[in-house]
Amino acid sequence: MTDACLTFRDLTLGYNSHPAVHHLNGSVKAGSLTAVVGANGSGKSTLMKGIVGVLKPMAGSCSNVRNARIAYLPQQSELDRTFPARVVDLVSLGLWPRRGLLGRYSQQDRDEVSRALMAVGLKGFEKRPIDTLSGGQLQRALFARVLVQDAELILLDEPFNAVDAKTIGDLVQLIKRWHGESRTVMVVVHDLDLVREHFPETLLLARNPIAWGATKETLRPENLLRARRFDEAWHENAPWCEPDHGHTDGHAHAHDGHHHHEHGETHDFPDHESGPRAA
Amino acid sequence: MYDFLIAPFLEFGFMQRALGGSLMLSLGACPVGVFLMLRRMSLTGDAMAHAILPGAAVGFLFFGLQIVPMTIGGLIAGVIVAMGAGAVSRFTVQKEDASMAAFYLISLALGVLMVSLRGSSVDLMHVLFGTVLALNNEALGLIAAISVITLITLVIFWRAIVAECLDPLFLRSVSGLGMPVHFIFLGLVVLNLVGGFQALGTLLSVGLMMLPAAAARFWSTRVEPMCVLAVLIGFGSCIAGLLLSYHAALPSGPAIILSAGFVYLVSTVFGTRGVINMRMRRHHHRTA
Predict the structure, then answer these.
(1) Nearest-Cα residue of chain A relative to residue B218
(2) Quick check: ipTM above 0.90?
(3) pLDDT tens, position by position, B84-101
(4) What superfamily does domain A1-68+152-279 belong to in CATH?
(5) Model-level pTM greater than 0.90?
(6) CB proximity A89 to B under 8 Å
(7) Of A54, A80, A84, Cβ closest to residue B173
(8) Of B156, B170, B177, which has the smallest distance from its Cβ to A93's Cβ?
């Protein structure tokens, strides 16, 4: 697989011995645009954190095959909005991968920051303190920072929350532009219509991967139904997931040891490029 | 006027030393205070100041009232508490305020215990409140070294420290510097508190760190000017405090801190982001 950007091998991520992403296998093609969908608690954000590396896998691995530079826009930013910084300071943080700790910002860098602000429609906002921005404006500023980061792999976690329709349109155009520049983009989205319209590929999660592949195939009603039936809660007395079960039919590090089994779901995708397994 | 403002510093060596020491102290401690405040760790400085006590006490126990052993002891105690509290908060679910409180209270109790094992309450007062008017060459050299180290470290790590305050998760996603910078910063806090405790005492040294920073917040919306302004306010407070102490025969440490406190109170009311301005502006606004 020469064109893989990310490869997951039996990846399990979670908190306190409970898996949030369970035995994920497969790879994300370089230059692909993938929507990650699923109910609350289905492991979308957790997967993002695992890819960035702020959360270490409980089992398996997630490898950044080409050592791609990553830009990550988290769902719950730890951004301190009361910090006395201007919009331009915030967006300039995106220069870090290039300039690091001590490199001076050149005129070219500054131009790039202005261009990024223009691209998200925040021209003239350079000097504004960040605590005067609205939620949607701040989100656009963060998009501008991603633009400046010039990353090969872009991870956006629910970037359209609290954003108005017009802005969503603008941001989707930006995402498509990245796709056009053959960057690899993964976006957590809730709006399935949006996904159908703009995203070629989709990963449907319900702790276990339900389906992964072309959007039209993945979002078939039976897959959505299975995703919807997933039990969000953790069960303290769930059986331990044994390693040798990982690839076959076994479940759960502390998985909800009941009504899931009846589906006999195949949650391994050795290579999803061979087509989605819609069970 | 000359007699009142300048003569005391020209005529008395101890006043010159006090002035030099406290100004150098402001140079390093005030910018550190700005970042402490912006990270909502203002009270952490206070906790750290208490945490230094047992280290200083150990130095005092073995060597008597001498600056170098007490400083080194304070430094070690401060670093242990800062690293311990920082580590607990980074590696467990407990937040830094709780772990810091736990560590500094243990440390403080140990310190009081050790001071009382030997020495009188006069000595304890000395450690707690300092003597800026009795700075010797050793102490001045130490303070100078600390402010130079602080300024150099701040310049080198400036971008990372700002990023760690502004968006820590972003810094973690692009660089491995997040955690080291946090500890380096805590190290600077300890270093400056230790530098201050000979002059101002363990309890008041945090005052020169926090009050100018808190006052500067009312005048600026950007970090760089805020740090410069904090240093200037620190300078002013030191000069005013020393003069006050000289003319009115008041203890110098509290006089310096009270001067800074006065600037703070004035700033809260009259600062560009103070009470009056924020209230006045409400009555007229632009169209867009």
Answers:
(1) A84
(2) no
(3) 888 888 788 888 888 888
(4) P-loop containing nucleotide triphosphate hydrolases (3.40.50.300)
(5) no
(6) yes
(7) A54
(8) B170
